[in-house]
Amino acid sequence: MPSEAASATQVAIDGTYLVTGICFILGLRFLSNPKTARTGNRISMLGMAIALAATGVLLDWSAAWWVVAVGLGGGALVGIYSARAVKMTAMPQMVALFNGAGGGAAAMVAAAEFLHLDPAANAIGWDQSLAIVLSSVIGAVSFTGSIIAFSKLQELMTGRPLTYPGQQVVNALVALAIVGGAGLTIADVDPVPAYFVALGAAALLGILFVLPIGGADMPVIISLLNSFTGLAAAMTGFVLGNNVLIISGALVGASGTLLTMLMSKAMNRSISNVLFGAFGRVVAGAAAGGAVPGATGTIREATVDDVATMLAFAKQVVVVPGYGMAVAQAQHSVRELETQLEKHGVEVKYAIHPVAGRMPGHMNVLLAEANVPYTALYDMDDINPEFPRTDVALVIGANDVTNPAARTVASSPIYGMPILDVDKAHNVVVLKRSMKPGFAGIDNPLYELPNTMMLFGDAKASVEKLATAVKAL
User: Fold this and answer.
1) What is the mean pLDDT of residues 406-423?
2) Which residues contact 313 (CB under 8 A, 6 or more apart)?
3) What Cα–Cα distance (Å) separates residue 330 from each residue in 188, 272, 302, 431?
């Protein structure tokens, strides 16, 4: 019987969706370790391929197969090109952009389903209206917020917080418009105009939401927006009655929320402070050198030969990568310096702060690209006890995550944030272009300590010179 055949097909599709969910869970599990991350990606890709195939069987493509083909083919080409063409230093921007695309897609699908149901002529159940509204609102916030995050990361606009008087009041009014429009839509009171009021206000809120957030908090915001996209996808799953969307969206939403909490904890700040604290406004002098014990108020500048000699005759060197290394694309040069130092019998380790760079794992990805062994990468908790017996800590652009004011200056905006204890090393060499403050907008008294020397210039050029000088010794 046709009905029995249809029922058997649905059971088979639900089974494949279950397999997809298992693949996603295993993929996340393997992604938790750098050694198995590639395997995790492959398993997740397999799960998505299974889901697409099952959905193709479920849908009737006889009338619009070419639309689906164009969408799949076009999306695949864009994804492949982006993954291969975008530099690793620009990976945070790509993640933000792709994340926004996911949120925007969820909102568009929900909007299309809403109009397809024709709410102006037919009453829609409150449960379905609720799912549509949540998918649309959360997806719109994620879309426009991710676009602003991308623009800040790509330096299409300033990475500093953008604030103005009455900002919180404006945000509250926009949020009230969302709640009002959503409420009227669910209550079926003039639902179409009310729905689009809520959708437009949500898109505006996404912009206003990210504007006052500075570059230092971008890792947290990318993670939070990622969780928003997951929630939007899960709500879209309820709208369409699609189990795989519900499963995958819930996984993304949960993992993104957990990562957001862990990142905030790593900075010793609450989520509300990240969202509403406008962290990163330039307040030069907020962490004055004299407020940190041992700071002399003077800067010592080193030459390449001085630093090369110091590195070559050290027993242990700890490299501290930061966004400066990413901007200069110096990871391959750092790897070459490591090779030359190891030829001199120097043990080289890498200190990775949880929020170094512009996204979670940014430094790990860059160093992996340069074939730095995973065993040489150390998390903050593991590497901090090593600094007192480290001969040289080589800091490459990592500003705020090495700032000792976080331990001693209560008035500093980063006070209480766990940092890498580079100041406890016997010698500290900082590679920077200038004395310009980092994302937090504050001075770093590390540069005024008697065991610190500055090597000014482009990080890649400086590291290349160091590698050449070490090789010549």
Assistant:
1) 82
2) 344
3) 58, 35, 19, 11
The whole-number pLDDT of residue 104 equals 93
Tell which residue, 394, 387, 393, 388, has the closest CA to residue 324.
Answer: 394
27-84, pLDDT tens digit by residue?
988 887 777 888 999 999 999 888 888 877 776 666 567 777 888 888 889 888 888 8
Give the pLDDT score at 285. 47
Q: Do 222 and 147 form a contact (C-beta atoms < 8 A)?
A: no
What average pLDDT score do residues 377-389 get? 92
Check if the beta carbon of residue 213 is closer than 8 Å to that of residue 235.
no
Other C-beta atoms lying within 10 Å of the C-beta of residue 8: 10
As a whole number of angstroms, the distance between CA 367 and CA 374 comes to 9
Cβ density class 226-245: b for 16+ within 10 Å, e for less: bbbbbbbbbbbbbbeebbbb
> For residue 286, what pLDDT is reported?
47
Read off the tokens for 337: 């310096």
Tokens 């700040």: give the residue. Answer: 269
The DSSP-derived string for 407-433 is: HH-TTSTTTT-----GGGSSEEEEEES
Question: Is the pLDDT score of 2 beyond 60?
Answer: no
Angle between helix 459-472 and helix 304-312 axes, rounded to 10 deg: 60
Q: Give the Cβ contact number of residue 106 at 10 Å.
A: 31
The stretch 263-283 carries a mean pLDDT of: 62
Angle 158-86-396 (CA atoms, 0-180°, nearest 5)?
60
Residue whose pair of structure tokens reads 């908090």 in the numeric block: 217
Q: Give the C-alpha separation, 324 to 438, whole Å.
A: 10
Q: Hey, which residues are catalytic here?
A: 400
The set of residues, in sequence order, having a beta carbon less than 8 Å from that of 389 and lying 6+ positions away, is 316
pLDDT surpasses 50 at 123: yes
CB atoms within 10 A of CB 116: 8
The pLDDT-based confidence of 466 (bands split at 50, 70, 90) is very high
CB 462 within 8 A of CB 303: no
Q: How many CA atoms lie within 13 A of 243 on its CB side?
A: 16
Q: Where are the alpha helices (DSSP H) in 211-242?
A: 218-240
Calpha distance 116→429 (Å, rounded) = 63
Give SS3 for 241: coil
